[in-house]
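Feature request disguised as a bug: please show the residue count (200) next to dTTP/UTP pyrophosphatase in the output. Example input:
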Amino acid sequence: METTTKKRLILASGSSRRIDLLKMLGYHFDIVPHSIDECIPDSAFPEELVRNLAFLKANNVAGKVNNAIIVGADTVVYHNNNIISKPKDALEAKKILSLLSKSEHSIFTGVCMIDIPSKKKLLRNERTRITMRHIPEKEIEAYVDSGEPMDKAGAYAIQGEGKNFVEKIDGSYSNAVGLPLELVQEMLYYFVNDADTKKF
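Example output, currently without the count:
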């Protein structure tokens, strides 16, 4: 039986969007979903909230693995000083999309990396500004009926049909999907040098 002491890269998420994004960096990684309750207080500052939740996710998985770098992430939509969560039902999805129509909102993603066993930790966040065009009620209804908005913060998927509502993107596109790849790459370099990253 082959043994190895190679450090593992672990994504503390079962999100298909984050899995697909991290694959784009070309690393081999394992998936160990976190088991925390993602409670979002209404009064939280978005930057602080996403960093805290990213840390809780990474730290939750850190206690279950050895010799690894764990990546935790959390994303929220922020509009008019309010955090917009995932819609609970179709009616709420329609209300959210009506709210975002013809206005600007921000997408914040917090990223936490924890090295085990050293317990070195990095916490960062990324912001992307999105401007939406006017979305007629009929388009909102058809989009909600498609089911795409139901598990998405802000009730739309910028990588899916939701892209048709976007007028302008200011910042990282991958952050708007759910994981800022440029930031993730930069953070990985903190833990391992260029040659070592090829081991993942």
